[in-house]
Amino acid sequence: MTADTARARATTPPWRALAVAGLIGLFYAYLVWSAVDLLIRQASGPLGLNGWGWFVHILPIVFPMIAFAVAFVIGWRRRTWEFALVLVAGLAVAAAFWTNILAYAVTSFSLYGG
Question: Which stretches are transmembrane (predicted)?
Fold first, then answer.
């Protein structure tokens, strides 16, 4: 068995990679949707948002999309379980970022009053 044959067997079939990416991508989409909900609630609240508040509240909308894209590019040529593990690791990073942004938004009053 040559190295090319071993590599061809080690990669994930495209349909399986898309199925895993779609399933785990739903969790990424939940993070994005939660961030959009927070942005709408804070922007339409009694104080509104200033420029820094808009920037801080838009970051958690964009970051999970970037994290998903990076994880997909890193893992899409690996075995199925490795690909899923890379996507879950990216999801963990995006969730940690979301938690940090949420904590900052709750405790920092400099974001509001625009």
Answer: 17-40, 52-76, 83-106
Asked if 81 and 12 touch (Cβ cutoff 8 Å), the reply is no
Q: Which residue, among 101, 91, 95, 99, has the nearest Cα to 68 in the 3D structure?
A: 91
Walk along the chain (114 residues) and give the pLDDT tens digit of each residue: 566 555 555 677 889 999 999 999 999 999 999 999 999 999 999 989 999 999 999 999 999 999 999 999 999 989 999 999 999 999 999 999 999 999 998 898 888 886
> Residue 107 and residue 89: Cα distance in Å, rounded?
27
Give me the half-sphere count of Cα atoms (radius 13 Å) on the Cβ side of residue 113. Answer: 4
Q: 3-class DSSP state for residue 23?
A: helix
Tokens representing 69?
A: 């894209």
Which pTM does this prediction carry? 0.85
